[in-house]
Design goal:
single chain, 213 residues, alpha+beta, Aminopeptidase, 9-stranded mixed beta sheet, protein N-terminal-serine acetyltransferase activity
């Protein structure tokens, strides 16, 4: 429950189809059930972390631990906001946004996952667009970044569709093998010049201090 000391549960971004906010505990467990059912198309490896490829029970526990850890370790200098994505009132995935020294750097890095039945419907693009409205219009970011493995075509397509531009490459590893990561960056000026989904924000002012604003 939101309190004057912890107003984050009231922070919400809404589009025509989606709502992004922190989940309640029952909603978090519903997300864990979705993760247990599967988040990765068989034969693909879009994530660096191993949780998405683990056994169903471990996938569920990983979602719970990641959420609790993000909030327990929160500080204005180093934060990770694990927003649940809701469609038709039901959780369908997570759109996270994180930053270090946000008050000085004004830069965020995002990540996301959607349950398999909800992929391919444009929800990932709409969720990231809502997140961008939150960070640029709500929190005053100047740059949003995203990292994708070179063979993660859906994630790369979302970045390009929303106006991100290439920002270099990294020689990386993925599950014990070499891999290439593509970096993408979207500036506030580029975002301002891009057509975007209408998004309504609530609860931003009450949370300003938690983000270092």
């Amino acid at each position: 429950m939101p309190t004057p000391h912890w107003p984050l549960p009231d922070l919400t971004a809404r589009t025509g189809r989606l709502e992004l906010r922190l989940p309640t505990e029952p909603e978090l467990h519903a997300l864990a059930d979705l993760a247990a059912a599967g988040v990765v198309v068989p034969g693909t490896r879009p994530f660096r972390s191993e949780w998405a490829y683990a056994a169903p029970a471990e996938r569920a526990r990983a979602v719970l631990r990641a959420h609790w850890r993000a909030l327990a370790q929160w500080s204005p200098e180093d934060w990770n906001l694990p927003l649940a994505v809701f469609a038709d009132g039901r959780p369908v995935g997570v759109q996270s946004v994180r930053a270090k020294e946000f008050a000085l750097r004004r830069e965020i890095l995002s990540g996301s996952w959607l349950a398999l039945p909800h992929q391919g419907r444009g929800l990932g693009t709409e969720a990231r667009a809502a997140m961008l409205h939150l960070v640029f219009a709500g929190l005053g970011a100047t740059d949003a970044t995203s990292h994708s493995f070179a063979d993660n075509a859906p994630s790369i397509a979302v970045s390009r569709r929303l106006g991100y531009r290439p920002d270099g490459i990294e020689r990386d590893t993925r599950h014990g093998e070499p891999a290439t990561t593509l970096r993408f960056r979207l500036t506030r000026e580029q975002w301002d010049a891009t057509a975007r989904t209408e998004t309504r924000l609530t609860g931003v002012d009450a949370c300003a201090e938690l983000f270092g604003n």
